[in-house]
């Protein structure tokens, strides 16, 4: 799909500013659609450099629209999904650009990619060939129509579209396409397991009121930013689901934290008015999952306040799943105390946890620039006192 000349042009301009490139070379191309396609390929390759790094070196992959690239999984999250699945037959009913299919397919003997948009399906088919994925069959059709006719599979995967017909982003399960509320039972008639990727903005407990047979919920973060909620359905499920929190990092083995809501509900913790030598901030997946009291109990820490999801200890807990800080100074909101604490400091990283001001408001009040190696945590103690903690991040 790319001529040798176009491949060479793309390689020579991979690091260029797309807007300037378009202005500079538009007149050199007689066929404007060809030039738009080439510009889109450069933009796409730039876009996936960090998102899907193993694909970046290839000169032969074809990139879809910017929106499709924004919506697709990253390599890290796709690899995580692949680590959960294996078997004989796999079907992706919402194929898109095909990233998840490409990384999951090698874990199965046969894989089926289903996508109703002809252009996307053609691009994905081409890319699967480039990547040497010979066990994937491409089907250009509606996913629900394919579901009705498909043979039984070990696993079905769906990533429902989270945009309305007008292009507006949606979060609720019933607003996504396909609507899982209408097909969840049918899905489990066609596969042993169903894995569903949903928005990280979705409320987990609300989702459990809609989805049935949920065996495991995977709350997936990358570099401490929550990226995906994965709901694993199995008809043999009994009782409440397990929640697995994972924070993926570059070149790092992931260590999942698993709990259920009963553990969180039954756990009693100690809240404190005293800050120890160390301060702990759970990674984003734990905060999203709501494992607040359980984190304190599991890692033998004291919690600052029911609504302040920060923890402290006098002795270091080195394997805490999140960021660890060495406490330097603690200040009330007294102006004199704050002035002494910030003496010689003109910039800091500010975090708000259960505090009446926003980050922007506090930064303006303290007259601090962003950045540096100082961390300020504005929070509330067990007795309701508002404080600011000055700390240094412990090296991992």
Layout of SSEs?
Elements: H1 4-12, H2 18-25, H3 32-48, H4 66-71, H5 75-84, E1 87-92, H6 99-104, E2 108-114, H7 118-130, E3 136-139, H8 143-149, E4 153-158, H9 180-190, E5 191-198, H10 204-210, E6 214-222, E7 225-234, E8 242-248, E9 257-259, H11 261-266, E10 278-282, H12 284-289, H13 292-298, E11 302-305, E12 308-313, E13 322-331, H14 335-341, E14 347-353, H15 359-366, E15 369-380, E16 386-393
Parallel strand pairs: 1-2, 1-4, 2-3, 4-5, 6-8, 14-15
Antiparallel strand pairs: 5-7, 6-7, 8-9, 10-12, 10-13, 11-12, 13-16, 15-16
Helix pairs in contact: 1-3
Task: Give me the CATH fold name of the largest domain.
Answer: Rossmann fold
CATH top level of the largest domain is Alpha Beta
Calculate Rg over CA atoms: 25 Å
Number of domain modules: 3
Shape: globular
**Mean pLDDT across residues:** 91
CATH architecture title of the largest domain: 3-Layer(aba) Sandwich
Treating each run of at least 4 consecutive H or I residues as one helix, how many helices?
15
Distance between the termini: 45 Å
Widest sheet, order of strands: 3-2-1-4-5-7-6-8-9
Structural class: alpha/beta
How would you sum up this structure, described in words?
By secondary structure, this protein is of the alpha/beta class. Helix content is 32%, strand content 28%. β11 (302-305) and β12 form a beta hairpin. α1 (4-12) crosses α3 (32-48). The two termini are 45 Å apart.
